[in-house]
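Support request, please re-run this one:
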Amino acid sequence: MSSEHQHQHRRRHASESSGHAEGRAQRGNRRGADGESAASSESLARPTAGQSAHHRRSVSRSASAGRQAAALCVFSAFLGLGLALLGEAVARVNQTAVSPAVNLFAGALTLVAVGAGAYAQASQLRLWSRRVRKRLLIGLPVAVLTGLVVAANWIGVTAQPAHVAAEPAPSAPTAGPAQPDGALCKAGWYGELQQDGVWLVLTSFPDDAFEAKIFGRGLLKQVSYATLSIINTGNTTPLVLRTFQVTLHLATGEEVQSYSLQQLTAWGTDRMAEIGKRLAAPYSLPLGGMIPDVPVCLEQGFDWARVSAVTVNVGQRALTLRGRMMSAAEKLSLLQQSPPPPPTNAPSARAAETWYKNL
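Re-run finished. Output below.
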């Protein structure tokens, strides 16, 4: 009995040992499978070393391009603004419109600045940079300001041709009344001189006078308007006038030069160019000849009450006529009392009569 009992006990022990071994083997297999699954999942989730390096290089290139675009935005914006302001300053000094070429170049720089700013802002979506942000906060507002300056200059350039084109239209109907019999009878400065066979008359017009407005339509710059008339009443040798620019003597002792005909022609339209051709120097004035309504212009709003005398270069002489501010009635009375003398060397009475009719 004891021998059989021992035999059964050994069989149970062998069976349990084999069961434990099989369990351990199964658990080992499950752990191996779980490890392989985790490793494969980790390998799928984590990029390879080559992919990571390529990603870093791509991000680095994008960030560098963004910084360069932001710098280009700032540079183009400031360059365009400086060019636009310089063109406007030159135009104001020369009293002309801003050059279209300057406007186009400044506008192109503005577009470059806006485009570069947009590219730099797009690069911020991939990799944010404080440096790029600061540059954009400076460059984009300056680009907008440059665009406004260019637009204002361009509007000024396109508006002026319309003014020039519209000028000849009213000149035809107003050509007749532009020289009325009492044209000199307007309140303003008046001076007259008869000396050495020369008769000079200079009179100024208020800025709102009819004559001043008609003359101002032929100019791109508004001026203070006066006229000078020169008559050769006693010189058989023609008087040669090389300039119609006069010198104004002020009560304070200062001297002011009027604008030259070359300046007025540069600021004027075709109508002013015709006046410049009519009065082209040197101008020969024969006996009995007259040069009427020579424009004497200064800056707009000039105070003629400060003028005490005016010097005019006639031939080789400098003649100074004195005058003062007068009312329209005073001018008319003075003109009626002192008509111009006839040519002293007129060959006949008929020639003198013809002189008065032409005058």
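The chain has two domains: 62-166, 188-343+353-358. The chain has a mean pLDDT of 76.
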